[in-house]
Amino acid sequence: MTYFLIFLAIAVAGAVASYVVGLNKASAGTSAAADDGFTAPVANLPPVLLPEIPQPEDVDRLRFSLGLRGYRMDQVDEVLDRLRDQLAAKDARITELESLPRGESAP
User: pLDDT tens digits for 18-63?
Assistant: First the structure.
């Protein structure tokens, strides 16, 4: 019975010490946003970027990091959004140039 009481006293002292240390860490400069547990995780991987003017070879060299269930969706979505915007801009420029009369040059 004596060993059980000693073990119980040590366990209670450890729990109290952990609680006090946790309170000190929580009040030592963290914000309320960090305490709620709903903040977005910070990515620890480098971003996947294309050059300013991508070429077909650049798309071939793209490599995405593997996540828990495949590729990281945020990286794939970012690259696809940029490609979509650049293709739309090129299509608009082609349409503009094709609508010019034959003798005129582009501005």
Answer: 888 877 766 655 555 455 555 665 566 677 777 887 777 777 777 7
Tokens of 34: 């960090």
The amino acid occupying position 40 is: A
Asked if residue 84 and residue 69 are part of one domain, the reply reads yes
List helix spans (H) across the chain.
Answer: 2-26, 32-35, 56-61, 73-98
Domain co-membership, 68 together with 35: no
Distance of CA 8 to the CA centre of its chain: 45
DSSP-assigned letter for residue 71: E
Are residues 24 and 48 part of one domain?
no
In which band, very low, low, confident or very high, does the pLDDT at 12 lie, cut at 50, 70 and 90? very high
What percent of the chain lies above the pLDDT cut of 90?
10
